[in-house]
Amino acid sequence: MELYKQHQIKLYNSLSGKKEIFKPIIDGYIGMYVCGPTVYSNVHLGNVRTFMSFDMIYRYFMHLGYKVRYVRNITDAGHLTDDNAEDKISTKARLEKLEPMEIVQRYTVDFHEVLKEYNFLSPSIEPTATGHIVEQIEAIQTIIDNGLAYVINGSVYFDVLKYNEKENYGILSKRIIEDAIENTRELDGQSDKKNPQDFALWKKAEPEHIQRWNSPWSEGFPGWHLECTVMSTKYLGEQFDIHGGGMDLKFPHHECEIAQAQACNHKAPVNYWMHTNMLNLNGKKMSKSTGNSILPGEIYKGNNEILSKAFSPSVTRFFIMQAHYRSILDLSNDALLASEKGYNRLMNAQQLIDTIVPSNTSSLDINIWKQNCYDAMNDDFNSPMLIAQLFEGVKFVNLLVENKATLTIDDLAIFRNTFNTFVFDILGLESLNSDNNSDKLSGVVELMIAMRNEARVNKDWALSDKIRDELLDLGIQLKDGKEGTTFSI
RNA sequence: GGCGUCGUGGCCGAGUGGCUAGGCUGGGCUCUGCAAAAGCUCCUACAGCGGUUCGAAUCCGCUCGACGCCUCCA
Fold it and tell me: Tens of pLDDT along A26-35?
């Protein structure tokens, strides 16, 4: 029997503002769409956090035996800002004297490299906005035909007020449109819109605009919310299970998506909306545009102003997983340092599991512990709670290793299997020392350890301490234990 | 200005009407030639003020503070 039949998941639905029991449209299958990055610059760690949260969610669904179609787009057509004739990709292209698609390619490659470093699973489909211009034009035509969009000077706008007569614009973000109208900021620059709340479906390109396509209305480019509506509909259907993204996309982006889909297909597109919270730096949201951000590469290479040392992708992943996806998380040197120690303790215990010898009886109830792990994840993917349980497991490991507790061969198998599944398959952590020390280096250190032990036998403390201290200066720490000396790099 | 989220021990960070979060740090102990590492163990908090309740950090109200969205943003 599939695991998902034994585990009921509750997840927080932004649409209702409550935790709800998750029930997919088709039993055993899940369609999930997550808004991906706009590739006009390097992704920063805040971007990574959102995708990592959904990576963990994706991993858990898969572990439970669901067949998941996970779609995460790449926005490779620049979004237009209201008061700016030029979008970000075009701006970057002009400044760097490159083709827009060169910009797109560069940062798409960067994005994928970062995800690889952080041990991400690939989504099932990773569609691009520019690959779906035709579908976007068709969707615009449908919305016009349905009377919810209007054409002005070659551009097409969604008529929010008219939509709101029969539907609820604000259903997701809990905004009251009348309030929004009252509190509209004065926009300088003359707009073609009937109302400031209206948003562009198609924008006529100014002469200097590089990314442009032909359409029934003008040579131009699609509006900034449309791609997600079109691509999610195309690959997941008119109604699908989960739509995710960062909290900052809730309004207007996701609100507009709902309106567009509703205007096209006359039904609510998404059953469960999930929003991840922001990653803060210096107490403020990480953001590309304000420059308050740190790049993944700066963290694992250590070349930054904020952190005292480099932190491996796995430590960073552990750090992010220690906070719930709906909570704000603050990045700081101290927090990462603490996470690194905790991560090391967890992984050391994981490696010790294989040395445990089974007994005839079990003194620990491993099934309750296992259930606690699942309960944590079933409750809105509570990874920090899961990690607390895993540290319970660490305690078990130490008791077992010291023969202060026992497990039967069957229980031990369950324990090992569960521990590894949650650490590696679901949290997506990677084990220590897997790549950073070569066989040759290990051999040399083993040799030094042997020489030091010889000195210790001879009570030559000066020599043995010299070996120990100088290795430490090189970043190699010797650890004397009952079973002999081990080391970490 | 509008809407919303949040305010937990030295730090990070869960949880929630009554029962231990967890990690890190610090103290003690074990181990050790010494140290480190490792293990065990201790440190019991929920912004403030009212209210509801047998009982609130958890529910309600107010105050203060932080942050987010309202403009591109994960």
Answer: 999 999 999 9
Residue A438 has pLDDT above 90, yes or no: no
Distance between CA atoms of A140 and A69, rounded to whole angstroms? 26
pLDDT at A17: 85
Which residues neighbour A403 within 8 Å (Cβ) at sequence distance 6 or greater? none
A272 within 8 A of A13, measured Cβ to Cβ: yes
Look up tokens 């042997």; give the residue: A450
Q: How far is the CA of A195 from the C1' of B62 (A)?
A: 38
Task: Assign A188 a pLDDT band (cuts: 50, 70, 90).
Answer: very low
Contact call for residues A68 and A124 (beta carbons, < 8 A): yes
* Distance in Å, residue A404 CA to nucleotide B29 C1': 18
**What domains, with CATH codes, occur in chain A?**
3-276 (3.40.50.620), 280-426 (1.10.730.10), 439-488 (no CATH)
Rounded CA–C1' distance between A252 and B49, in angstroms: 38
Q: Measured in whole angstroms, how far is the alpha carbon of residue A392 from the centre of its chain?
A: 26
